Amino acid sequence: MDEPTALQLADIIRQTAFEAHTFLRHGHNEKVYENSLRNRLRRKGLTLDQQVPISVYDDDESLLGDFTADLVVNSGFIIELKATRALADEHTAQVLGYLRASRLEHGMLINFGAPKIQFRKFIFRSQD
């Protein structure tokens, strides 16, 4: 089977997260949803890395710090999970920061904490 495009991958992730939320409902901590999504996406044949460290560098390549992405799918699609009442602007800024630092284009923010699951898909294209 060919590697899915970013658009196909986004659809697979969204559908799989919806299935996990339908089964688990809201009320669990973020780690439970992260493990469920990881397990379900692997069963669908995708490659996943969990708790992936990503370094942030200054313009002179000095290391400024690190952060950890919840899931990286097929080495190119970042997933950040939340289990909060609602998504906030700082969650969006976090995902965009991850994309900028990792130099990856595609990411998704998923909130399992609300009664109705929430998704935000991002495409980040560097201006350099």
Structural features, described:
The chain is α+β, with helices and mostly antiparallel strands and 128 residues long. Helix content is 37%, strand content 30%. The protein is built from 3 helices and 5 strands; from the N terminus they run ααβββαββ. It has helices at residues 6-24, 30-43, 89-102; strands at 48-57, 63-73, 77-82, 106-111, 118-123. The chain has a 5-stranded mixed sheet, with helices on both faces. A hairpin with a 5-residue loop joins β1 (48-57) and β2 (63-73). It starts with 5 loop residues before the first helix and ends in a 5-residue tail after the last strand.
For this entry, give a set of tags.
alpha+beta; 128 residues; five-stranded mixed sheet
Rg over CA atoms, rounded to whole Å, is 15 Å
Gross morphology: globular
Tally of DSSP helical segments: 3
Order of helices and strands: HHEEEHEE
Largest sheet strand order: 1-2-3-4-5
Q: Please summarize the sheet with the most strands.
A: 5 strands, mixed
Termini separation comes to 34 Å
> Helicity, in percent?
25-40%
Low-confidence stretches: none
> Strand portion, in percent?
25-35%
Mean pLDDT across all amino acids: 94
Number of strands: 5
Q: Oligomeric status of the shown chains?
A: single chain
Helix/strand class: alpha+beta
Strand-helix topology:
Blueprint: H1 6-24, H2 30-43, E1 48-57, E2 63-73, E3 77-82, H3 89-102, E4 106-111, E5 118-123
Parallel strand pairs: 3-4
Antiparallel strand pairs: 1-2, 2-3, 4-5
Helix pairs in contact: 1-2
